[in-house]
Amino acid sequence: MAQKKRIDYIDYLKGLTILWVVWYHTSHPEFVDYPPTMPMFFFLSGIFFKPYPLLEFIKKKINTLLIPFAFFYVVYYIYLILQWSIHNPLSSFDFSCFWGIFRLYKSTESFPVNPPLWFICALINQQFLIYFLVKANLKRVAIGISALLISLFGVFYFYDVKAPFMISRCMPYFIFYSMGYLTGRHILSLIDVEHGIKTSRQLGLCGLTVFILCWFIKSAYNLNHFLGALVSYAEIFAFILLMIYLLKYSYKLPFLRFLHFYGVNSYIVLGMHEIILTIYLICYTNLFGQPGVSGGIIILILTTSTLWPVIQILNKLCPQLIGKNELWK
Q1: DSSP state, 324?
Q2: pTM of the model
């Protein structure tokens, strides 16, 4: 499979984003709950979307998304069986949870098997949705407006509706993936100083200014649901813009180098971190009781450290199962 041309600082930002997700899944301080993490992941993924001919597009999505999803799903299912069998008779295990992927879900409900895989499920939904918008020959502005309307519909009318394959949970984020596709490359060209260092700085300053302004508006005024959603979208986009700018000019710092590794292997982190984190959480709880913030940081460090060799092993032994090489040629 032809390798995508990688942009180093985007991989660093992906690494930061995906490790933030890992931190979110253990004990953490309140600021970790700030919402741009998931939208930023989708925006960065949208930058590299390409509307190939339909059969080629389906083949690529099967190789890069569906097969890794199935692999990490099965691995986690086996882990659940093993974990249950340690203290319980195997006959009492609910083997039917495997089919939980086909249930209907709403809002923040998660798969009973490997809950973080909803991220990959969201990417599948979003990529097929934007593919059909692009292939409908809509102009870019029309795609952007359609994406905003679809996302707002998801926020106000569909979020609490039970639907298959996490569609209810994914729809509000569609605007971020779409804007990554529609504007991401242009933003990168501006930040990459193709239009001069002054333009790059102005773009970063614009992100900071809009982010602060939106935060102030949300804090100072009691906005209705619709205006609140629009301001939140603007705030998150500004934050994403600011983070892209900051990583562009800081990613070469030596202490940030580890982010590149996790960014390049973000799908593996998504698929495997819950197993490792849960094992450390059980061990920590048995030894010290429920972890606080400091315990959460310890579990985060242990989880990410363990992920390092796990990622290397999976990349070497089964690249076709984790989206690195084509299984369906």
Answers
A1: S
A2: 0.93
